[in-house]
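User: Assemble these into one structure.

Assistant: Restating your components, then the assembled model:
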Amino acid sequence: MRWLKLTVAYDGTAYAGWQFQPNEPTVQAALADAWRAITAEDATLTASGRTDAGVHAVGQVVGVSTASQLPHERLRQGLNAKLPDDIVVTEVVDAPAGFHATHDSLRKLYRYQIHNSRVRPLMDRRYRWHLPQTLDVAAMQAAAAHLVGRHDFASFETTGSERSSTVRTIIRATVEQGGSGGEQVDIEVEGDGFLYNMVRGIAGTLVEVGRGARQPDWMLEVLAARDRRAAGPNAPALGLVLVQVVYAE
Amino acid sequence: MRWLKLTVAYDGTAYAGWQFQPNEPTVQAALADAWRAITAEDATLTASGRTDAGVHAVGQVVGVSTASQLPHERLRQGLNAKLPDDIVVTEVVDAPAGFHATHDSLRKLYRYQIHNSRVRPLMDRRYRWHLPQTLDVAAMQAAAAHLVGRHDFASFETTGSERSSTVRTIIRATVEQGGSGGEQVDIEVEGDGFLYNMVRGIAGTLVEVGRGARQPDWMLEVLAARDRRAAGPNAPALGLVLVQVVYAE
């Protein structure tokens, strides 16, 4: 068997998330269909993690073991020819034997995308949360800085999930303003792991600070509470993008 | 009567162009419906020019005269609440009495957007022409420079149109590479007027140079020929964006 690592980008708008569900369109099912068409194999496609309904990816990583001897580039082109236009395999490379995309990941980078303008977004309308009220980006940045380090992020975990620990290490948490009129506000959070809905909870909490309802240091109280009710609401799925997953070389 | 100037952005993918056509979805018809819903008027909405099926705009300008006394911002918000999500009114301002969006325009800026990568575009798939073969952007830039000035652009006019003159002045013609991996190649052309399909013909001709089929100085021959058959093919509609229309103050 050959072990491969696929980098996959998708527009999550039309999907019930990454993970296979009966009678729902999922990214995993679409990729499995394309894989079957190219290799005639019913492969197990394992992603770095699930993404929820409506969440996007530019750098989701998928591991697969295969008997196919097709060269990387032929596989990539073949899969893309079979996939719908909202899913693209951007890279196919060799992976170490036994590669597991979920368990072997070292860290992940997510971006939460906001369109901050009185005017709703056009080209980005599927990819950015529209917030018409002007956000204080410096205050959001100050609040985000409190997230960096090893913390208990229980306040940012949607209840119902079962994890042995809610402690994670955030390497970087930044808020940057871009676009021709400063209308793009991008929150980037990089860490060694994420709890369920953690980035959407962080984004919703930072927006509370950005709109002036809370001060930046409120983030310290939210973290200390270890209670989901202490944080802001979850930001909507459509603004969330899984940007990159990093593995050991 | 009050004269107003609307700036309108749209994703042209779902439309048979700007101009009203029976039994076809058009941007003009969608805007007229929204206008009627807000003002109860059957207004004449005059754009700076038609855009073809599939062509986009971020800065189309539309003139209208109205008896409505609604403030600019109320009109803008009301129209956007009624419009589908692929059309947005970005600005409403006063216009001089008798304002005519077509005849009064001084110059226009178009951008033709290419996605130049072996991998097809994802987020930009409705807005960029995918060309997998690596383009020589410097050669394209050298060819584009020949367009600047007052020239007869008959070689870039799709036959069938009736114009008194095919002479136009191009103020700027640039080719720039952007995006994280240099995959975005943007052609910008600014001029005092454009012939039918002129920017798509220019883009298709520049791509012939970019892929090495022709040298940059071929552009001089194409211009001199004054014959549509001398130029490259029209680039597809989906990459074309009307960026800005400038009027006298």
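Chain B touches chain A at residues 9-11, 56, 58, 73, 76, 80, 85-90, 118-123, 125, 127 (CB under 8 Å).
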